[in-house]
């Protein structure tokens, strides 16, 4: 399955290596990048207990002086307190501008490590070693880093690209089923926004709800095509001045649902799944795409074991209010990414509140 995908950017291009069983060769990869010899691994207790020793040994055997920062697991810890802990350990171990922070974990760890690297000494090296499907196909690529504010997701952050991304699909064998399904939401997103043929491949698969139910060829396709789609979009628009916003398909309402449930009841991919269902129905109500396309999308979302309904107890007006503090708001108007066909979307701020309200009520 081994393959390399290039993220081509004007300032700093880098490689994504997808290769099974390569976690213990990270040190060799980094040795070729001519980085400084100090490295700080940032991880959480669960992932570090499974894979920390391999990564630590690999880096040390390639001549790196390695320190570690283990942060609590979960979106609720994606805040400035955690960033301060990374800074404290960076200071204690005298990390320099040539040093490297290594994110070993899912999207939360990757986002925080990237933000710490972007801001420590005004920017040091940073490497992504994603361990969840969602991080592999989405958050580890493209340089979006940051933390949450109590009132909204990812409101504090920076665009800061990694030097390298290493994806070892074998680590998915220890990923909980719920996390695998959450990652599939981002995979389905690429089919809707970018690649109709890829969507059709997922549509043809009898199961998408667990690693054990997906054949190795489809897993390889999922990783390669998702990473390539992300690399293609980011290569055209690194800092979301235009087309990159389409990567937020499903995220507008998804983020609101996540933040209103305190980042505990609904995890990120589950929010994206719900957000895609809402966006599809909004597009249908606006006459932008068809009931048939909506049904096809929702069938694949259900096949991935994801919900198509809002969690109980959520207030619709609170969701509509939360949309106003989304990062994509421009001149006070909420921008939605809405599908026009399978494989294509458009960006619009012309979505009446009564249509949003109607769709959300139907999803209760």
Summary keywords:
364 residues, 17% strand, 7-stranded mixed β-sheet, alpha/beta, 13 helices, 2 domains, Dehydroquinate synthase-like, alpha domain, single chain, two-stranded antiparallel sheet, 3-dehydroquinate synthase, Rossmann fold
Question: What is the element layout, followed by pairings?
Answer:
Elements: E1 3-7, E2 14-18, H1 26-31, E3 38-43, H2 45-61, E4 65-70, H3 80-92, E5 100-105, H4 107-119, E6 125-130, H5 133-139, E7 144-149, E8 152-159, E9 164-167, H6 177-193, H7 196-204, H8 216-236, H9 251-260, H10 268-285, H11 291-303, H12 316-323, E10 336-341, E11 344-348, H13 353-362
Parallel strand pairs: 2-9, 3-4, 3-5, 5-6, 6-9
Antiparallel strand pairs: 1-2, 7-8, 10-11
Helix pairs in contact: 3-4, 5-6, 5-8, 6-7, 6-8, 6-10, 9-10, 9-12, 10-11, 10-13
Describe the protein.
The chain has 364 residues and is α/β, with parallel strands linked by helices. The protein has two domains: 3-174, Rossmann fold (3-Layer(aba) Sandwich), CATH 3.40.50; 177-362, Dehydroquinate synthase-like - alpha domain (Dehydroquinate synthase-like, alpha domain). It is built from 13 helices and eleven strands. The strands form three sheets. Strands 1-2-9-6-5-3-4 form a seven-stranded mixed β-sheet. Strand 5, helix 4 (107-119) and strand 6 (125-130) form a beta-alpha-beta unit. Helix 5 (133-139) runs parallel beside helix 6. It is globular. Zn(2+) binds at residues 186, 251, 268.
What is the average of the pLDDT values? 95
Shape estimate: globular
- N-to-C SSE series? EEHEHEHEHEHEEEHHHHHHHEEH
The N- to C-terminal Cα distance equals 42 Å
- Tell me the radius of gyration: 20 Å
- By helix and strand content, what is the structural category? alpha/beta
The beta-strand count equals 11
* Oligomerization category of the chains in this entry: single chain
Number of helical segments with 4 or more residues: 13
CATH topology-level fold name of the largest domain: Dehydroquinate synthase-like, alpha domain
Percentage beta strand: 15-25%
What is the name of the CATH class of the largest domain? Mainly Alpha
Protein name: 3-dehydroquinate synthase
Keywords: Amino-acid biosynthesis, Aromatic amino acid biosynthesis, Cobalt, Cytoplasm, Lyase, Metal-binding, NAD, Nucleotide-binding, Zinc
InterPro entries: Dehydroquinate_synthase, DHQ_synth_AroB, DHQ_synth_fam, DHQS/DOIS_N, DHQS_C
Organism: Brunnivagina elsteri CCALA 953
């Amino acid at each position: 399955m081994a393959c390399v995908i290039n993220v081509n950017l004007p300032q700093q291009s880098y490689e994504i290596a997808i290769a099974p069983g390569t976690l213990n060769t990270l040190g060799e990869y980094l040795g070729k990048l001519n980085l400084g010899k100090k490295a700080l691994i940032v991880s959480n207790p669960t992932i570090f207990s499974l894979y920390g020793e391999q990564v630590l040994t690999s880096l040390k055997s390639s001549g790196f002086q390695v320190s570690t920062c283990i942060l609590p697991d979960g979106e609720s810890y994606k805040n400035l307190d955690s960033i301060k802990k990374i800074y404290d350990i960076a200071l204690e171990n005298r990390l320099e501008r040539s040093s490297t922070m290594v994110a070993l974990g899912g999207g939360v760890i990757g986002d925080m490590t990237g933000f710490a690297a972007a801001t420590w000494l005004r920017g040091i090296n940073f490497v992504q070693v994603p361990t969840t499907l969602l991080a592999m196909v989405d958050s580890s690529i493209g340089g979006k880093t940051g933390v949450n504010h109590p009132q909204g997701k990812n409101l504090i952050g920076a665009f800061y690209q990694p030097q390298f991304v290493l994806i070892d699909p074998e680590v998915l064998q220890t990923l909980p089923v719920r996390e695998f399904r959450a990652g599939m939401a981002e995979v389905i997103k690429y089919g809707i926004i970018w690649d109709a043929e890829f969507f059709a491949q997922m549509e043809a698969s009898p199961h998408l709800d667990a690693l054990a139910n997906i054949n190795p060829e489809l897993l390889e396709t999922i990783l390669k095509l998702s990473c390539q789609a992300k690399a293609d979009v980011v290569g055209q628009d690194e800092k979301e001045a235009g087309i990159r916003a389409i990567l937020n398909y499903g995220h507008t309402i998804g983020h609101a649902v996540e933040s209103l449930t305190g980042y505990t009841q609904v995890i990120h991919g589950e929010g994206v799944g719900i957000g895609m269902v809402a966006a599809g129905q909004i597009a249908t109500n606006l006459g932008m795409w068809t009931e048939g396309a909506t049904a096809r999308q929702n069938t694949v979302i259900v096949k991935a074991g994801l919900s198509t309904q809002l969690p109980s107890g959520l207030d619709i007006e609170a969701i509509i209010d939360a949309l106003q503090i989304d990062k994509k708001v421009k001149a006070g108007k909420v921008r939605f990414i809405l599908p026009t066909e399978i494989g294509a979307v458009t960006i619009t701020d012309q979505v009446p509140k009564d249509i949003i309200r109607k769709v959300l009520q139907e999803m209760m």
